[in-house]
Write a structure and sequence with these properties.
Layout (H helix, E strand, L loop, with lengths): L1 E12 L2 E13 L4 E5 L6 H8 L7 E6 L2 E2 L5 H8 L2 E4 L11 H11 L4 H14 L15 H12 L6 E5 L7 H18 L2 E6 L2 H7 L2 E6 L2 E7 H5 L5 H6 L15 E7 L7 H9 L3 E11 L2 E10 L5 H10 L3 E6 L2
Parallel strand pairs: 3-8, 3-9, 6-7, 7-8
Antiparallel strand pairs: 1-2, 1-4, 4-5, 9-10, 11-13, 11-14, 12-13
Helix pairs in contact: 3-4, 3-5, 5-6
């Protein structure tokens, strides 16, 4: 489990204070994959550095599995960091070391006996599907294979937490999906907690159980995927479930409704149900349905007839668990 409480990081630039993190609090339960999204400069990289105490937070606390890291001795912090595996954007492998030597490196640093290292490296390479490439050098591997080596190396010390900083941004779409599938498989097999820093919404859709959005060093949205998808007022909902180009409004027609819904509701005949129950026409302006993880989600934009009973229709939709936003009449 990762627990961050009221984390602040302020840098000095000349006589000015630059606030990189402004009261960030979040909790990621054991065995869950959590995404941190945000534009460049939002504070994502600073958050990673503070989580590993590579940067000392100005205030606030960071804890991994109940162990508070911000007020411990140097030796205690060194030991705590071994419980946190880091996966970087470009893998950051040693070019002069083979695959197995790269994976072995963290174990060599702590004086692990060679026989134990060999057994652990063999186990990890099998886990990430690289047994055949044990003797290969980074220059002989594809981008996806190098990232698998980086993941295996991050797991060498049996960490409780895996921090992934833009792990797929340098990969093509097919390889991205393969790496994300691997991360999910490892989470399931090892029951580790995973935090993924990314600017790619596809990563959140493909792998994450929950997500936080950072803006100017603050978390402005947070929740599991279903919560943020069905929050009609949030920006994550429209970003994760974007609508294609809207069809033109029908002249003389009434208000527009945005519907966000999930699970069994995503397969229900919402439009025909409204038409039958309220004896009115419904015009579909745009819509999208996506599979996010194990769940199906839908985003639909409708335009009602001018004489439709708006309040009754909205109340009916909300009673079925559909999030509704009224966009207004023309």
């Amino acid at each position: 489990m990762i627990t961050v409480s009221d984390l602040r990081k302020v840098y000095q630039q000349g006589s000015k204070d630059v606030v990189a993190l402004d009261g960030v609090s979040l909790e990621v339960p054991t065995g869950k994959i959590h995404g941190i999204v945000g534009h460049s400069g939002a504070g994502k990289s600073t958050l990673v550095r503070c989580l590993t105490l590579l940067d000392q937070p100005t205030s606030g606390t960071v804890a991994v599995n109940g162990k508070e890291l911000t007020n411990v001795s140097t030796d205690e912090l060194r030991n705590a960091r071994r419980r946190i595996g880091m996966v970087f954007q470009h893998a950051n492998l040693f070019d002069s070391r083979t695959t197995e030597q790269n994976v072995a490196y963290p174990l060599e640093l702590v004086g692990t006996p060679k026989a134990e290292i060999d057994a652990k490296v063999a186990e990890l390479l099998e886990l990430v599907g690289l047994t055949k490439f044990a003797k290969g050098y980074p220059s002989q591997l594809s981008g996806g294979q190098r990232q698998r080596v980086g993941i295996a190396r991050a797991l060498a010390t049996d960490p409780d937490v895996l921090l992934c900083d833009e792990p797929t941004s340098a990969l093509d779409p097919k390889t991205t999906d393969e790496i994300l599938d691997l991360v999910k498989k490892l989470r399931d097999r090892l029951n580790i907690t995973v935090l993924i820093i990314t600017h790619e919404m596809h990563v959140v859709k493909q792998a994450c159980d929950s997500v936080s959005m950072l803006e100017a060093g603050k978390i402005v949205e947070h929740g599991d995927i279903e919560q943020v998808i069905t929050n009609a007022k949030g920006s994550l909902a429209s970003t994760l479930l974007p609508l294609p180009g809207d069809a033109p409004r029908v002249d003389g027609e009434g208000p527009i409704l945005d519907l966000l819904y999930t699970g069994d509701q995503a397969t229900q005949p919402v439009i025909s149900s409204i038409s039958r129950q309220f004896n009115t026409d419904v015009n579909v302006l745009a819509g999208s349905v996506e599979q996010l993880g194990e769940q199906q989600y839908a985003h639909l934009r409708l335009q009602l007839a001018a004489d439709a009973d708006l309040n009754a229709i909205v109340n009916h939709l909300k009673s079925t668990g559909i999030a509704v936003t009224v966009k207004g009449a023309k």
